[in-house]
Amino acid sequence: MYGGGSTGLATRMSLQGPIDGREVPPRVERSRPVGFPDAQLGSILVMGSGTWIDVAGEKHREHRLVELTVAPDALGIWAELAVFHDIWGPFDFRGVPHPDVEKRNAPRLTAALKSLDALLGVPAEPGDPTYFGSAEGHGIKAPDVIDGRGPDLTDLL
Fold first, then answer.
1. Contacts 24+ apart (CB under 8 A), 30-36
2. What is the mean pLDDT of the chain?
3. CA-to-CA distance for 57 and 79, rounded, in angstroms?
4. DSSP 129
5. How far apart are CA 130 and CA 75, in angstroms?
6. Among residues 141, 132, 131, 77, which one has the least CA distance to residue 109?
7. 68-121 pLDDT, tens per residue?
8. Is 152 helix (H, G, I), strand (E, B) or coil?
9. String of b and e for 28-55 (b: at least 16 CB within 10 Å)?
10. Is 44:70 a contact under the CB 8 Å cutoff?
11. What is the domain partition of the chain in residue ranges?
């Protein structure tokens, strides 16, 4: 259909307050490209810093700890949560067990996923596995263990 499809353009927006702030929807609407006044929102990618907790209970700020993509489609709204750290599972990226780190962080991921379920009104579905791991339920699936260690994944870091 003429006039359909992607514009090929993306807009970046920095938010200084909460993502669900009252001023966010009007700002998103005003970010429509001037050359495409009838353009509709394709998706929103939310990325930023997050906090993880180490074995000693110290909090650390980490850029791109998680990313959330939200987009409308013909059936409604879908969301995808992607994680980019080894703190959510039982092993670090070298395969070394770190159960205390997982214990401090994995419940926070579970809570976030359950919150998304409630917000969207549908249960989460695990995405495709990656080299670094796969989802299971509201968390990260434990990898195969050999001699008490997980896989060493550092070759792709």
1. 33/7, 33/9, 36/7, 36/9
2. 89
3. 31
4. -
5. 26
6. 141
7. 888 887 777 788 889 989 999 999 999 999 999 999 999 999 999 999 889 888
8. coil
9. eeeebeeeeeeeeeeebeeeeebebbee
10. yes
11. 1-42, 47-156
